[in-house]
Design brief:
Layout: H1 3-19, H2 25-34, H3 52-66, H4 73-86, H5 95-105
Length: 113
């Protein structure tokens, strides 16, 4: 199994255990591939839920630029909701999992087709 496949399996386990969802493995793979080499970088592959600057980056670079959403307060509310569900005390909040959950939440899976 490749390193990418191992990471995707880890992400799928998080989606099941933390969010109680059966992951769409095709979409999850596309999200991971879309993140490119960032998934292999210990720092870049995670999102710090307590770092406002990091959360702004998720909002601006992913929700607005990648998914094409309008900048509204609902975007940050959604990010905070995902962080809360993931668990504030969870140190390993994987970027691919957060992006996957947000893409599903906003119904923007088609961005990855």
């Amino acid at each position: 199994m490749s390193k990418r496949d191992e990471l995707i399996e880890k992400y799928a386990a998080d989606i099941k255990s933390k969010f109680g969802q059966d992951p769409d493995m095709d979409l999850l793979t596309k999200v991971a591939v879309g993140l490119g080499p960032a998934i292999y970088n210990l720092d870049a592959s995670k999102v710090s839920g307590s770092d406002e600057k990091e959360l702004e980056t998720v909002k601006n670079n992913f929700l607005i630029k990648k998914l094409g959403l309008a900048d509204t307060p609902a975007l940050m509310e959604s990010i905070n909701s995902v962080i809360d569900t993931y668990g504030q005390s969870e140190k390993n909040k994987h970027r691919a999992v957060i992006y996957y959950i947000l893409a599903k939440h906003f119904g923007k899976e088609s961005v990855y087709n």
